Amino acid sequence: MRIDEKILTAQGSSFSILDKGEHFDKERVRKEVEGLKKLLSNVVPGTRIAIIIDNSIEYIISLIAVSSLHATAVLIEPNTPVQAMVDYLKAARVSFVITTEQISNSLPKFSGGMKLGNTPYFQIPLCYGDKKDDLENDEAFILFSSGTTGVAKGIILTHEAVIQNINSIIAYMNPVPQDTFYITRTMVYVSSLIGEVLVALFTGSRLIISNPKNSPRSTLSLIEKHKVTIIGVNPAILNLLIKTSNLGSFDLSSVRSLFVSGSMADKELLMEAQKVFSAAGVYNVYGLTEAGFRVSAQRENGFNDYGSVGIPLNGVQIKIVNDQGMECAPLHSGEVYVKTPSVMKGYLNNSALTKEKIVDGWLKTNDKGYVDENGQLFILGRKDDMINRDGFNIDPVHIESVINNHEGIKECIVFAISDEKVEQKIICAYVRCNRFSGEINSKVINQFCQSYLKQIEIPNIAVEWDTIPITTTGKLSRHLARERYLRERLK
Prior knowledge:
Elements: H1 3-8, E1 16-19, E2 22-25, H2 26-39, E3 48-52, H3 57-68, E4 72-75, H4 82-91, E5 96-99, H5 101-106, E6 114-115, E7 122-125, E8 139-146, E9 152-158, H6 159-173, E10 180-183, H7 190-203, E11 206-208, H8 216-226, E12 230-233, H9 235-245, E13 257-260, H10 267-276, E14 281-288, E15 293-297, E16 311-312, E17 317-321, E18 334-339, E19 346-347, H11 351-357, E20 358-359, E21 362-371, E22 377-382, E23 387-389, E24 392-394, H12 396-403, E25 409-418, E26 424-432, H13 442-449, E27 461-464, H14 478-489
Parallel strand pairs: 1-11, 3-4, 3-5, 4-8, 10-11, 10-12, 12-13, 13-14, 26-27
Antiparallel strand pairs: 1-2, 5-7, 6-7, 8-9, 9-19, 14-15, 15-16, 17-18, 18-21, 20-21, 21-22, 23-24, 25-26
Helix pairs in contact: 2-3, 6-7, 8-9, 9-10
């Protein structure tokens, strides 16, 4: 079964979507999908079609239409730099692009795309793709996931993998048609697309589409206005929502479930979130695109220890493997391996890396963690992100979570550089909150950290930047931050 069939033909899932004040029910979406399919009548099964659109009803309609054409949706974030966008289109051998006029005109050599009827869509024929005419095409999505170097890898997910993962998410999330989902992040991100948007459409829930650039105040106001019940956030967004909630009065009592993913949320942040969203269960969840994507989750009436990301989803197995390749006993740390029916089909154009990443059915995540006696998974950080000082492994994510709690910090990133005097010097680059008028510098951050971190974990240097470098898929990048810091230090 394909994703479009699950959304449009499933019995009893009469969803509702609100975008820019306009309502779309299942029948209206179906008509819009059929209209777009007619305009794409020259597309044959197996064709790869890129969708480069901001959060909108057009994005969802394009996604469903491409699926129903037995084509593959290549999902690219609209804010991706133009050259990277072109590289992705070439790598995926895309035949058509569905996008906006602005993006259409920005793509070199392909400006002046053909407008599709009276809709906001623009279709750009490209020379990269092949006419496959493949009725057995099982590819649902190709997504580009950033690595620690900032270089994105194309990841192929099949319809079967995505549907299985959505069903497993539904099993622990327990959404009902009366629920209202609010999307805080770009829908290109797999956590939003599979974990929220498609879950809402599969279960007939209400979906509120928002601009990811909305201010925290606007987000809280919309949550209150639409009586949102389910929200997915990352720790950075959650931190901003908590800080903003303290500056005004918002009724957030409608929220029953708040799921935190993208990076680890520490105990202090989760405790503050529980105060702000007092009627909600606040749950850490874990996944990665290669796993298709959700792997484990905290859940209602389960083991939800602070610091854990819950237990594996239905059908998912986890084991911890040490540096010698041996499986670890509970409470012993190593690399997290995952076996799941939702695992990716493979990396785009890179079978060697696929074979290296998936061994005997086990996906090597490159995440360091451990499992406790109750089967809860604890993530300690990326293997290649860990900082080593005096023989101790230090998790930069933990340091970031502490510094982000300072009222004057909007966001920060922590990384290490080699130093002649110490094994690794810890650097914190931060962005100041616009509303904060106090002093922020290395001394202030050092004093703030004294109460929460060991001396060996406290950053040696703090630098203020206007923005933190991100990868082409929108994640904060330690690699790019380190490069920027070293480059600026030489000036």
